[in-house]
Design a protein that fits this description.
6 helices; elongated
């Protein structure tokens, strides 16, 4: 209701209420004019050609034992996220920042 109010809307101005079991279902409902708004990721909104209002940013961090960090599969994942192809995709989808991807943050043991 807070976000609607910031954009000059209220709950009574919304068309309907539908159940969506995924972000893509929610985006499809908006695209088919069955719903007005839904929570979801910017990339899904872009995929459906919808507008997007950001509520904020969220970081995704991996917390894992040290031996896992050095496994080839995990290092391959980090390396792929740093490639030009991944960076281009993140750019295309907008809203993703892979700048610090793979940076180690050492906590107290």
């Amino acid at each position: 209701m807070e976000m609607l109010g910031k954009h000059g809307l209220n709950v009574s101005s919304l068309k309907s209420e539908v159940t969506a079991l995924s972000e893509r279902e929610a985006a499809a409902a908006i695209a088919m004019d069955l719903a007005d708004v839904a929570p979801g990721a910017r990339s899904v909104a872009a995929e459906f050609g919808l507008g997007f209002i950001s509520f904020g940013w969220e970081s995704f961090d991996f917390v894992l034992p040290r031996p896992i960090w050095f496994r080839c599969l995990f290092q391959d994942l980090i390396a792929r996220l740093r490639t030009g192809q991944s960076l281009e995709l993140a750019d295309e989808l907008t809203g993703y920042d892979l700048t610090d991807c793979g940076q180690l943050l050492w906590g107290d043991d």
